[in-house]
């Protein structure tokens, strides 16, 4: 049985748990895990005040209970596997650099902000600013992969610098806002103003979307690199069809208010 | 020694270390993938005159390629790592980048690698873009047709070059038929290529020449027309033609396996005699003895 932390009851105010990741708990005894510092609102507390600790294991960590008010789960994680058996709160997987974090339910806002590597999988839906920038920073996610099987909120991949974000469901407005590079794939509906102020990078839309007037049509073609991406996403469990993988895409260059080196690739019917 | 009706000379092939890479080319059709691979591996029979040795390893099904399109894999060998890097950039740049609908990927797993796509990207003149997926960087180079996709780094590893078998027969047609059968069988062995035209060389060489500017010259001891002129000949009286198959491989085992397959196929196809080329064991560290190479060899 992997090391398992079970939240006894939802906290009355948000609980912040930076450092709750398999690599940081590796080798720690049960008492040490229970003594880890957490912040309950503005009050310092111990992890054992809220969680029951069971099992052991250095490479895998499992979190159970209603964790919607628990922030920073897996933040800074660099290795191993973390499974959240249910929903997770804000900032889940922030600053991850490696390993795999799987959330079996929904995640709150700011999931994967500042991420540099590893993989964040959300089986449910995600809030706003997935893979975005940390407050005060220009660049958002710098590497790794975020896969959302449900929907995602506004400003997905805002400031994205490198890496891949894919969403199976609907994506909110302003996806790829001010993005610098990297790739966003929206398999469902894509909200308005995608790629606003983007400099470089790619946004892939599988359904028609009205673009900002600062995007210019380039051509329709089958981007060779996209086959690699879409085949990988299918291998990772997202619902990609052969028509999407082999299809023709309209290439729109933008944002003309910036470098016009970014692109929105829209699947043609 | 004998293998069926074929005489097998009790000798060995002498092979050398060379650096190798595997290039995977994909395209919209098998024909274009093959065309690019043919061009990539053209004029690459021997390092003596071509700076590298290359050949098509095999055709690839869409299920085997990174982008799910039909493809071909080729192996390219050069004397050293830096030379291999230069040849890769030259040949991928001139033969794959230019070929309609192709993309080019590293096909070898090895700890060392050289920059290929990272050099070719400059053809994009500033309009190139990169993508990083699963830890591998790819370059998208805009071209008139659309876009050329090439992986940035190609793995390189020390391989074995110069494995060989030499097949003798009473006439050209007899010897060539047995050699063709051997080459066809050897192509089924993974991790090897036969760099000469059709896998077969009619002009096996020795090191050096009476002319100081030549690094290699004809192997007079195996030239049937010189049998009566030279002080030493390896051509039996009933032999009128001799062919050689040279094998380059990523591993010693692959080269040895290919030689074994070729020996059996040549004997089955009626080769009069099979031998192997060496330099007295003084040059190459890899010696592949014909004795013990296949079951059924008897003294």
What's the layout of helices and strands?
The complex is a heterodimer of chains A (269) and B (299).
Chain A: E1 3-7, E2 15-16, H1 22-25, H2 30-34, E3 37-40, E4 43-46, E5 51-54, E6 60-64, E7 70-71, E8 81-85, E9 97-103, E10 117-122, E11 145-148, E12 164-167, E13 183-186, E14 202-205, E15 216-221, H3 224-235, H4 242-246, E16 249-254, E17 262-267
Parallel strand pairs in A: 1-6, 2-7, 6-8, 8-9, 9-10, 10-11, 11-12, 12-13, 13-14, 14-17
Antiparallel strand pairs in A: 1-5, 2-3, 3-4, 15-16, 16-17
Chain B: E1 2-3, E2 6-8, E3 12-26, H1 30-40, H2 47-50, E4 53-60, E5 71-78, H3 81-96, E6 103-106, E7 112-115, H4 117-120, E8 129-133, E9 136-143, E10 146-151, E11 153-169, H5 172-186, E12 192-193, E13 205-207, E14 216-218, E15 241-249, H6 252-268, E16 273-275, E17 286-289
Helix pairs in contact in B: 1-3, 5-6
Overview of the molecule:
The complex is a heterodimer of chains A (269) and B (299). By secondary structure, chain A is mainly beta. Chain A has a domain at 109-267. Chain A has helices spanning 22-25, 30-34, 224-235, 242-246, and strands spanning 3-7, 15-16, 37-40, 43-46, 51-54, 60-64, 70-71, 81-85, 97-103, 117-122, 145-148, 164-167, 183-186, 202-205, 216-221, 249-254, 262-267. In chain A, strands 5-1-6-8-9-10-11-12-13-14-17-16-15 form a 13-stranded mixed sheet. In chain A, strands 4-3-2-7 form a four-stranded mixed sheet, with no helix packed on it. In chain A, a hairpin with a 2-residue loop joins strand 3 and strand 4 (43-46). The longest helix of chain A is centred in the C-terminal third of the chain and has 12 residues, at 224-235. The N and C termini of chain A lie far apart (48 Å). Chain B has 299 residues and is of the alpha+beta class. In chain B, the strands form two sheets. Chain B has a 15-stranded mixed sheet that branches. A two-stranded antiparallel sheet of chain B has the order 13-14. The longest helix of chain B has 17 residues, at 252-268. The radius of gyration of chain B is 21 Å and the shape is elongated. Chain B starts with a strand and ends in a 10-residue tail after the last strand. Classes of the chains: A mainly beta (269), B alpha+beta (299). The A-B interface holds A 143, 162-164, 183, 200, 202, 219, 221-225, 227-229, 231-232, 245, 261 and B 66-69, 103, 129, 131-134, 138, 140, 146-149.
